[in-house]
Design a protein that fits this description.
17 helices; ATPase_NBD; 6-stranded mixed beta sheet; Carb_kinase_FGGY; transferase; 22 strands; Nucleotidyltransferase, domain 5; globular; kinase activity; Gluconokinase; about 500 residues; alpha/beta
Length: about 500
């Protein structure tokens, strides 16, 4: 019998599907990534094709297995990670009759604002999901009020992970964390919340069955197994959402362990042994297991800010990168590194896609503040990178109010490949930051849940012994003091500009 030495993770992200093959000790053996497009059929609508995502997932899994050169019989299982807040309408033939509407979709701003004035606080206290257009609950209210045809014809409402599980295994099941992120799941009872269901105009039987993250699916068809380059009987472990899995995969699972992740968007999170919410409604609290919750806040604006900076200011660097086979982001980072911390008094509010935590304001808008004739391209790039971290720091203040001060900070996601961005993070927080060797923390968390579900490891906490780490980043006291001074201004700017953001947002929608 072939010895099983490896574990595979499928990570369904905002813009791509990644498959990562790990050794049992967390070392990456092979990985493959396949992107998929985003469609904007109307202003503020953000949609994807579920079938394109499925194909990307199949290609990623097959690609990682083939790149590794190992026998597929050596793979123990597949664990699944997925981005949150997607929504797909399904008919009674188990077919998607709507696009996958993503977390970034803003069509339901009016419904979110109205719900905040009515039952929103009670729903938030029950579900731990702030009232915002990202939430499937609010999207469903929009569907109900606008008589959206797929909603009227739907037999089920699912996330992209549920869509794949149904297509591959014929089951409508959802893990607790993905369920929590819908705004329809009661984090105290671990059942669908009646007040939220009533607001959405749906019933519990139109949703999947909530199950633990250790739930196992098996029995691929011969054709699908061949397309995936996997055995038909390989166990797929349902896993969780990318947030708690990033915490797990980076080792941030004890009280005081704070994980900061920046990919396309970003988040700061901390695990908790009981659910905690309050009337300020600034942070989320999602169920992970029946004795573990995750608290924190997401920002809409992370790596997408750097992408925007590249597109707007980086024409020269993009051309140079193409000519010399370099990375344009590295070239732009080198420019920003030559600028003093604080970008010589230039601040950037990074609200290019509105904002979630701590303001939950889809009408927030991005702004450069403090521009002078002496500021150049490199200042604007540095201010953009710093603005993303200032935003996360503001969420961290809200998290600290409920969870206490951090004792350890861990960083993961695409931004963890940038030493400059990590040093900015370290200097703004004034705290050592630990970074894993692999930036695929959500994938490793999903893989570990797979090992745990099959009894291959003793506990979730045991993962701490199998996370290869780099040397920690250490803050510079002078830089931290400078950032603290600037943050006092940054923290007031959103509230000062809020009425103007809303007027401009209304103008932009006309």
């Amino acid at each position: 019998m072939t010895e099983k030495k490896y574990v595979l993770a499928l990570d369904i992200g905002t813009t791509s599907a990644k498959a990562v093959l790990f050794q049992r000790n967390g070392r990456v053996v092979a990985e493959d990534e396949n992107a998929y497009p985003v469609y904007h059929s109307h202003p503020s609508w953000v949609e994807q094709d579920p079938l394109e995502i499925e194909q990307a997932a199949i290609n990623a899994i097959s690609g990682a297995v083939q790149k590794s050169g190992i026998s597929h019989r050596e793979i123990i299982c597949v664990g699944i990670s997925s981005a949150m807040h997607s929504l797909i309408c399904m008919n009674d033939q188990h077919e998607a009759i709507s696009p996958s509407i993503t977390w970034a979709d803003g069509r339901s701003v009016e419904q979110a604002n109205y719900l905040k004035q009515t039952d929103g606080k009670d729903i938030y206290l029950n579900t731990g999901t702030p009232i915002h257009p990202m939430s499937p609950l609010v999207k469903l209210i929009w569907m109900k009020e606008t008589h959206y045809q797929p909603y009227l014809n739907a037999a089920k409402f699912v996330s992209i992970k549920e869509f794949l599980l149904q297509k591959w295994f014929g089951k409508y099941i959802v893990d607790y964390a993905i369920a929590s992120a819908t705004g329809l799941f009661n984090i105290h009872t671990f059942t669908w919340d009646q007040l939220a269901l009533s607001s959405a105009g749906i019933t519990a039987d139109q949703l999947s069955e909530p199950v633990p993250s250790t739930a196992i699916c098996q029995g691929l068809t011969t054709e699908l197994a061949e397309r995936l380059s996997l055995p038909q009987d390989i166990p797929f472990v349902i896993g969780s959402s990318d947030g708690p899995l990033a915490n797990l995969g980076i080792g941030a699972i004890n009280p005081g362990d704070v994980a900061i992740t920046v990919g396309t968007s970003g988040a700061i999170r901390q695990m908790a042994s009981k659910p905690q919410t309050d009337d300020l409604q600034e942070i989320f609290c999602y169920g992970v297991t029946k004795d573990l919750w995750i608290m924190g806040g997401p920002t809409n604006n992370g790596g997408n800010v750097f992408y925007w900076l590249k597109e707007v200011f980086g024409e020269v660097e993009v051309e140079r990168a193409l000519a010399s086979n370099e990375n344009p982001y590295d070239l732009l980072t080198a420019l920003a590194k030559g600028v003093n911390p604080g970008a010589d008094g230039l601040l950037f509010l990074p609200f290019l896609n509105g904002e979630r935590a701590p303001y939950w304001d889809a009408d927030a808008r991005g702004s450069f503040i403090g521009l002078t004739q002496s500021h150049q391209k490199q200042h604007m790039i540095r201010a953009g990178l710093e603005g993303v971290i200032f935003s996360i720091y503001s969420i961290g203040e809200a998290l600290e109010r409920l969870a206490g001060k951090p004792s350890n900070i861990f960083a993961s996601g695409g931004f963890a490949r940038s030493p400059l961005w990590l040093q900015i993070l370290t200097d703004i927080f004034g705290h050592d930051v630990q970074v894993p060797v692999s930036h695929q923390s959500s994938a490793w968390g999903a893989a570990w849940f797979g090992l745990y579900a099959l009894g291959e490891v003793s506990s979730l906490a045991a993962i701490k012994e199998d996370i290869p780490m780099k040397e920690a980043f250490v803050p510079h006291a002078v830089n931290h003091a400078r950032y603290q001074e600037l943050y006092r201004t940054y923290s007031e700017l959103y509230f000062a500009l809020k009425p103007h953001f809303h007027k401009l947002s209304a103008f932009q929608r006309v």
